[in-house]
Amino acid sequence: MFRHLFFSISLASVCMLWTGCNNEKHFINDSDYRLKVENDFAEKQAILKNGNLFDIFSKEMTSEEKEALQFLYAYMPLSDIADNSGEFFLNNIRLSLKIREASSWGKNIPEDIFRHFVLPIRVNNENLDNSREYFQKELWPRVKHLSMQDAVLETNHWCHEKATYTPSDSRTSSPLATIKTAYGRCGEESTLLVAALRAIGVPARQVYTPRWAHTDDNHAWVEAWVDGKWCFLGACEPEPVLNLGWFNSPASRGMLMHTKVFGSYNGKEEKMIQTANYTEINIIGNYADKSSLAVTVKDGNGNVIEGANVEFKLYNYAEFFTVYKQKSNEQGQVSLSAGLGDMLVYASYGDKFGIRKVSFGKEKTVDIVLKHNVNEAYCENMDIVPPAENANLPSVSEEQRNENNIRLHQEDSIRNAYVATFPDKDIISKFAKENNLKYEEIEGFIVKSRGNYAEIMKFLSNSTQNQMCRKAIDLLKTITDKDLRDTPCSVLEDHLYNIPEEASTEYVLCPRVANELLTPYRSFLQKEIPESLKTEFTSNPQTLVKWCSDSITIRNDLNKGASPTSPVGTWKRRVVDTQSREIFFVAAARSLNIQAWKDAVTGNIYYIDNGNTYQADFEISTMSKTPEGTLRAIYKPIPRLDNPKYYTHFTISKYKNGSFKLLNYPENATWSSLLKSGTRIEEGYYMLVTGSRLANGSVMSNVSFFTIEKDKETKIELKMRDNAEEIRVIGNFNSELKYTDAVTKTETSILSTTGRGYFVVGILGTGQEPTNHALRDIEIKKEEFEKWGRKMILLFPDEKSYRKFSPTDFPNLPSNIVYGIDTDNEVRNEISQNMKLSNGGNLPIFIIGDTFNRVVFQIDGYTIGTGEQLIKTINGL
Which domains, ranges and CATH numbers included, belong to the chain? Predict the structure, then answer.
């Protein structure tokens, strides 16, 4: 009787508890998915046992908050857990849940869309910051009464007030750092816009084309979920309507667009990759016609191979860049959907490989036979054709366009007013005098620091007071422009005041190792590394290599798509990815006055011991000097290309673990500077890619494979293919160069004037016969130039030359001409240097270029038929 009563009470208690749980609000209502998150979270806890990483879960929170926090921790990268507090993530969760309740659209967002595209803080590989809190305070009052669509458009206008496009290095600034700087590259602008949209509760994701198919570049933009549909927009480039940007046309020629979705995602899109941190989905169908293609990998006997490495590669920047990589299944197959153009597919297994051009839309299935051996000399020509343009543009009324243009001008004024607060020459000069500093030594640092100028000036001022100004200046010389823009004084001082007095080389002084955010690791490591280990490491740096190999657990699978863990986080947590371990080794070595660095070309880690250079190999933990040979290339010039450039005309990649890894030589490297007389290069197997990009985007490529042996010279041919019948890319030109508009007297850029696409730029010699001939030739083709409709920018060397010019002497010039002054001869110098014109070229100079910085036509000096040649080239584009 008692036992029966106890059972009844217990059962009732369970029912009450169950009912209570059901009455609580869930963040994840799908019980199966909730169970998966709980299991993945428990697995993450089991892996990261070291430290107090999960203490936040002991804090008081609702069931909804706890489930959301478990979701973030289950899938966030190791670096996010190691370098950020639990309170940071819980605060962001509460901000997200609060905005969902406050917004008119929050209740209409499906649970899975909110979970993956609003809640996550991370967008790409930026360092995390408090932007969500800041954005909500500033942006929410501006959009809260708008419709969801208008809120998205307004948010982009707000972002345009804060930042505009300027190219920079590949490290992604945080959203707040981009605002502080007032500009960023497309990856930073899109990170900013995604963060801003998520802050107001709008689902958003960053979209990348890993590389364009038709030109040497890539791009990132944003998709926002608006009233049940994903729509796109150019970040910090506001348009009057959604699904409109300068990139509509190039996107229609794209072969692959993808986005990384935080966590395990089960949406309807094609899933490309599932990692422990994100799901990569293929969304090419949102922008271009597509087709699927299946590759079957076979050996020489026709047997299918399971587990082969298969890479789909796009030609871009003179390399075949891997845009998708997968292992072949039991049937030896890997499939991909892509735009209707050509790719190269590379497959390998063991010491065998095969390559083949594939054409999406023309082929559905192809076989790749692994018929080549590693170390086999081999070459092959390939003609790569990108998809044709098929842009779909939404309609915009003239009223909408005019209103948008007015707003863009206002937003430029707002942003420029902020930029005007940065120190000018007088302020910098006054600061230099007050701190006994030389103006010319510090001016560059302060100007480049932009909105971070107060931190850099504080650092310099403090260093003067501490008699460390010389070393402070030397330290600033070792870091990047982006470091100057987002590094606090406290971080710089951690490195300055914890460097040994005798340290003078960059490989000890520099706080940067690779492309990570600068952090204050030096004082921490000097304090935390036990004295016994310090003695071992400094007396024999190889023991530091071994310690890193033995004491740090590598889990590359748990840090995909994120920034590396800081050296402090690595020391504390001891579970990181390979790159974080490399950064930690160099950081620890430099903190102990051991010269160490990561090689910019090969990516290898090196250190110096007793004057000798060794490679740090964490896999074998033994000292090694990497054997090298010499590579020399013979080049037979083709018309207008006497000295091919690295990244523009050719690249070299080294074979390792079944794949080829690009050698990152400096951007100014050429055949003559690198290969004509020979260069030292590690022994191994290599791939040389060359390519002649035609004006229509196609590429005439050559791929060759060769072996470098220790202490031997390998001679190869650098073969540039040519077709005299085709218009090809013959050089490059920076379309963002500035000039002064002759009418408004304001400074503007080529890009701002022409918009995206092809354009003509000419440099004139006023009153000179060659210029007069050229202008009359252009008059003859007036109708055709106007039908083309693109801008023709004609520049004069100075204001005096412009005033001497009389347009009435040439009454039939095309109406699409814009006149300007070539300030300081920047445009002329750019053309003459890149096109190898002797003595700056003879006037007039004309080029046809595009805003992807390609030049397809150039002419200078006295030439009959200039207009005819320009139109012939234009018609061939």
Answer: 23-282 (no CATH), 731-876 (3.40.30.10)
